[in-house]
Specification:
InterPro entries: PsdUridine_synth_cat_dom_sf (IPR020103), PsdUridine_synth_RluA-like_CS (IPR006224), PsdUridine_synth_RluC/D (IPR006225), PsdUridine_synth_RsuA/RluA (IPR006145), RluA_PseudoU_synthase (IPR050188). The chain is an alpha+beta fold. 25% of the residues lie in helices and 26% in strands.
Amino acid sequence: MNSYYAPITYRVPPEEDEWLLKTILHKRMDVSRKLLSRLKMTEQGIMVNGERVYISVRVRAGDRVEIRMETEVSEDILPQPIPFEILFEDEHLLVVNKAAGIIVHPTHGHYTDTLANGVVHYWASRGERFRFRPVHRLDQETSGVLVIAKNPYSHQHISEQMIAGTVDKRYTAFVHGVPAEPHGDIDGPIDRDPAEPHRRIVTPEGYPSLTRYAVKAVYPGASSVELKLESGRTHQIRVHMSSIGCPLVGDGMYRHALYSVAEPAPQQAAQLAEVAALDAAMPRQALHAVRLALRHPVQPERLVFEAPLPPDMAALEQRLQRDAAEAQ
């Protein structure tokens, strides 16, 4: 016999008396066509007042409409006891504070030691059955808030919010130099670098990409910025900040932007020495997903998740503050 997650329920109000069940599912419960096809194939996928029905029936005021999804597991992910920090969890979502240095999902040639391995082990240890469904990704060396959906319905809803631009993703970064304006938009299409396909570049032929930034603090040779993503391209923040001459501290892949500064040799040498000193204090890109806000996929509430700066970035901030104090 199939096992199911707890049902998602909708009570039909008087003004929707005699509506088609199909309309209720699409317009009121926001069930996608893809998920609806899956639900129709299961014994308890779509029920009204506890009975299995066709979606062509008409409902009455007060009817209890329920959808049930079959339980799933990620059979291709090896469970491993990898620790991770939980910010929030209920039957629909798992929100974690991802540590820097850990890959989110197994990839070709890297099947273990990922966040997915740790999460699958955590669920199995509690006797729970969920498939690992990250709604978005963070680079291996980027830390911070990451949302994982625990069923297809939740994944669909949050993905739609991201497409609609209603998910508020905020990042904190420390960058070399100071942007020319205290706040602004970086509107630059992004695509692969033909010369180095593992890198991305801003190019007219790329995919539309928009990053909003605001300078929060200025230090000798560096600054702290808050960033908001309006699109989700690979390496977007790193590429965009590099494109305006302010690559992230510790980001060796996009540091090349600093080597084209039109300064006389002695000044450039001094600047690059400062860059090297800062990068030596930060062995990864100084980028942290500090805040994420979204609407709960089932409850009518907006959720806000925050993760404080990790120890390495907090230490970098303290160093920059000391440098600023000594320079006064």
